[in-house]
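Typical record was shown:
=====
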Amino acid sequence: MNEKPIAVFKYGGNAMLNEQLKTEIVQNLGRLKAQGLKIVVVHGGGPFIKRLLSTSKVKSEFYEGHRVTTPEALKYVEMALKGEVNGDLVRLFNKYGNTAVGLSGKDGKIVLAEKRYHNSGGEKKDLGRVGDVKKVNPELLHLLLDNDIIPVLTCLASDADGMDYNINADMFAGHIAGALKAQQFVVMTDVDGLMTDISKPESLLSRVDGNRIQELKTEGIIKGGMIPKIEACTTALSTGAKTARIINGTKPNEINKIIENINFGTVIEK
């Protein structure tokens, strides 16, 4: 019997905020599963975190685009990610005929975290409870997938001392895809992929050689929120994933092309 291939989807962007899009994405992922893929979903939830911190009047400052996360703020980060975003995605998957389980990296010690410091001009900036992925143990994920269950993972994990950390969801997803040796790692964002000019859809780069990434960063083509997405793809590929692709999550029907092996989005190559 052939082993079913694994596809890891990083879900984020505006598609998380639109209920109709969210429903269509869940339904399309369910169709892929029915066609023979084992599906894993990894998500963040920046807008939900921002809203909860604001309504709870918890200060949360940014340093060079990174959220400084205090122990107090982390409690609300976990409430938003696990209590709101994760629970809602699990509800939708179950509603549309699948069996899903909500998890974070802490469950089953799936992810071991380590504290992250931000380097700025040669200086290390302490970002509080912000972490990196140190190690992935995919045993629990394989157990769930082998039993026809969709794991829905959010980007929280503990270190060896039991200290909790919030981890960038793109990078978290890339490490998960690599550890699972995923056939497909798919990052859903708000644009069709990597473009040389964001105002010109025809400038989409359908394939990007990993050796060109530093050059594209220097040229300012890979910038802002696209940086961690590209880095997540290269992490996934270097740790075991077979292919990595960035697609537009606001066009849910794009997901159906995965199984048909149609050229779309931006494929990152080793």
User: Anything to note?
Assistant: The chain has one domain: 6-269. Residues 6-269 form a domain with the Carbamate kinase fold (CATH 3.40.1160.10). Residues 71-95 form the longest helix (25 residues).
